[in-house]
Amino acid sequence: MEIREEMSSFERVEAMFKGESTDRVVLGWVRVVEAGLGLPKVTVTEVVTDKRGYKLYKGIKKLYERYKTDIITVYTYTTVEAVAMGTKDKYFPDQLPAPMEYAIKSPEDLDKIKIPDPRVDGDLPCIYNCLRSVSREFGNEAIITSGTVGPFSVAARIRGLWQICYDIMRRPWFAHDIINLATEACISIIEGWYEAGALGTSSGAGSETTIGAEHFRQFVVPYERRYLRKAKRMGYLSFSRHLCGGPSASIVVDELRNIGLDILPTLVWGAYESADHMLEKKRMFAQYAPMVAVGGVIKAAETVALGDPKTIEREVEHIIRTCAIGGKYIHLPDCCLPPTTPLENLDAFIISAKRIGRIH
């Protein structure tokens, strides 16, 4: 039987970051699935290109009212920032857009790129206007967040991942110029998200987990630190740092301690190798900052989208029993869930976490 919830989402999240007891685990947002859930007659393309943000809002409302998560993250697809800067995407009816032509092909193109205004450029207005609606309706119940994929990943999406890796090796000055431009774009975008009602912001995607630790220190850490400091000055209250799957994910995770994790209460979530690995990193981060939480591990596509409910429930219990003791754990999958994720699998992932009981 599900336990009675005695804490508000705000109380629960604050206690979790402090390592105090909570009435249940903190539930993060299972993002992107809202582009399909409850909207069977609407394509993903129609959701993410709706500048009013109404269709995205309807999907989020449906998801939140079903699960009452503690956090709502308003976002659409991981090249949305780059599209607003000139990258051309291909759109699909049942999956997220993907890049077809990158905005920067040569150093001369840097001068042609406009810093995007999230209120009017590309598909960003969908997020901006949805944020305003979600904040008005649910801002007193849940923590509303939004962010970007972060400076390095935006740079990779306006230049191309292979191309920027080539630049890092052959003409690092050009790579720095692109990432500096991407940082300014990210800062402009999250200024808009804050204006629209977001209290937490985020960063991180898969591009940076294709480079090694030394290049991560040079081409990710300083820009990420600048981005995070700006978010703090804007008034954001929390930060979420995604660690996406990639060949160097288990290596560069240690470098995240250098981005300034003590600036804001921070969630470092994503592609940990196992529950034990995530627990190890939770303890490591605690040595560098007092309020860092972890989450992820359970694979969004392989397990939650394509698995069966019983297997999902077993994994959920194992992860929570291993990692949630002592707080500093937020329950969410390792990455975005596909819009076609079965509802019964989502039920197993979220409702089973609520049923485990009080976490000490």
How many separate domains make up the residues?
1
Which structural class matches the secondary elements? alpha/beta
CATH 2nd-level architecture: Alpha-Beta Barrel
Major sheet size, sense and barrel closure: 4 strands, parallel
Question: Overview of this structure, please?
Answer:
The chain has a four-stranded parallel sheet with strand order 6-7-8-9. The protein starts with 8 loop residues before the first helix and ends in a 5-residue tail after the last helix. Helix 5 packs parallel to helix 8 (about 170-195), helix 6 (about 150-160) crosses helix 7 (about 160-170) and helix 12 runs parallel beside helix 14 (about 310-325). It has a single domain, classed as TIM Barrel, CATH 3.20.20. The protein is globular. Helix 11 (about 250) links the parallel strand 7 (about 240-245) and strand 8 (about 265-270). By secondary structure, it is of the alpha/beta class. It contains 15 helices and ten strands. The protein has helices at about 10-20, 45-50, 55-65, 80-85, 125-140, 150-160, 160-170, 170-195, 215-220, 220-235, 250, 275-285, 300-305, 310-325, 345-355, and strands spanning about 25, 70-75, 90, 100, 145, 200-205, 240-245, 265-270, 290-295, 330. Helices cover about 45% and strands about 10% of the residues. The longest helix has 25 residues, at about 170-195.
How would you describe this structure in keywords?
360 residues; TIM Barrel; 4-stranded parallel β-sheet; 45% helix
